[in-house]
Amino acid sequence: MSLKFFHIGFIGFCTVFSLGFGAWCLLANGLPSMFSLMGWLSVTGGIALLVYWFRFLKKSKDVIV
Prior knowledge:
The chain is mostly helical and 65 residues long. It contains 2 helices and no strands. The protein has helices spanning 3-27, 33-59. Helix 1 packs antiparallel against helix 2 (33-59).
């Protein structure tokens, strides 16, 4: 397993985890208001990771593994 494939997989995992945690924070009832802030920050971070993931894929497609 090369570092490139590990990086792609790890960023994908972090994106899914961040978006999932953000959805849980925003959709769960009865949580303190701080969870709403954490949810929005997590969703924003997940979207940023998704943008980074696509840019990394585009940039590294010419790299030989």
